[in-house]
Amino acid sequence: ARYLPLLLYGLLIVLAFAHALILFMNGQLTVGEVITYMGLLEVLRFPTYISLFTFSAVQLGLAGAARILQTIKAETELDENAAGHSAPIRGEITFERVSFGYGQPSGEGQGAAPGEGETAPISRPLVLRDISFHISPGEIVAIVGQTGSGKTTLTRLVNRIFDATSGRVLIDGVDVRDWSLDSLRSQISTIEQDIFLFSRSIAENIAFGAAGNASRAQIEQAAREAQAHDFIMALPDGYDTVIGERGVTLSGGQRQRIAIARAFLTDPRILILDDSTSAIDSATEDEIQKAMRRIMRGRTTLLITHRLSQIRWADRVLVLRRGELVAQGTHEELLATSEPYRRICARYEETDRVSR
Ligand SMILES: Nc1ncnc2c1ncn2[C@@H]1O[C@H](COP(=O)(O)OP(=O)(O)O)[C@@H](O)[C@H]1O
Ligand SMILES: [Mg+2]
Known about the structure:
Elements: H1 4-25, H2 31-42, H3 45-79, E1 93-101, E2 126-135, E3 140-144, H4 151-158, E4 166-171, E5 174-175, H5 181-186, E6 188-192, H6 202-207, H7 216-225, H8 229-233, H9 252-266, E7 270-274, H10 286-296, E8 300-304, H11 308-311, E9 316-321, E10 324-329, H12 331-337, H13 339-354
Parallel strand pairs: 3-8, 3-9, 6-7, 7-8
Antiparallel strand pairs: 1-2, 1-4, 4-5, 9-10
Helix pairs in contact: 1-2, 7-9, 9-10, 12-13
The protein binds adenosine-5'-diphosphate and magnesium ion.
């Protein structure tokens, strides 16, 4: 099909020349007119050749577009559930015999059949195994365990960054897969250790993620609650100070407080705090502790931490070990009954001391 234009052009020339010859024979055209006519046909040569290149370019483009569309569609089909359950969250979280394994790296697998969930189970080693627990609204629950035991993964099932491989995750008694993703995610905030800030003003960074446009007053209020207002005011342009490569750099503790201010503005019902790295001294800053305590108030909180001082804030502790929930209870209960927990605490005490 590629060379079709060239073929057509060739045929056109031949036919036109034949036609011109006939007319010439009949004396209806002069030699000059025939030559002029053929000369004019030459003008078509260039677009014909160009069309060869554009044709292949367009074809490539179409193929690419088809693949992009396929990806977009696949992802929305899997996820959104816009018509799903949408309601204010109270903050009850229930895991019912949840197991989870990461699939293969989710590249555009060639000819990956849309039938999701049909991937061979062998290729998905379970990161979480048969986990069940219940968290009441407003409860603060610490999750402890060694690195790689699945703490972060567990929290990812709550806001549906991933779906459980088997079992169910319920929020307020409704399967997360039945929630409208939008409604679900807008009411759950995650603060991770690695805080991502845009190369924009501080105010814009705080307002990021808030529904609608937050007013300056609301932004300042959030910053105050996050103990960030004072250091922001000390910056050259206050809330309009630009962060990032061409702006100021903030310390880890300052970034963390920006993230907490963000969360205050979003006012989530469920809060996930993932303090993944154990040795960051910023987290021991008095102001951060204060901000963290305040953001947790009245919200269901999943608190991943390596700090004994923070574990003591929790109403309950879940102990994970290699993807299994090996114990749960209050700090004191677990100290009395759980050997793995005592070991973890001993180690945490060390990191606590080191980072002070
Ligand atoms: N995106 C991912 N894809 C594949 N495997 C992952 C991914 N994230 C984590 N894992 C694996 O899952 C296990 C649990 O990780 P994680 O939940 O991050 O543990 P923790 O937060 O307790 O340190 C680890 O073995 C890790 O290598
Ligand atoms: Mg982690």
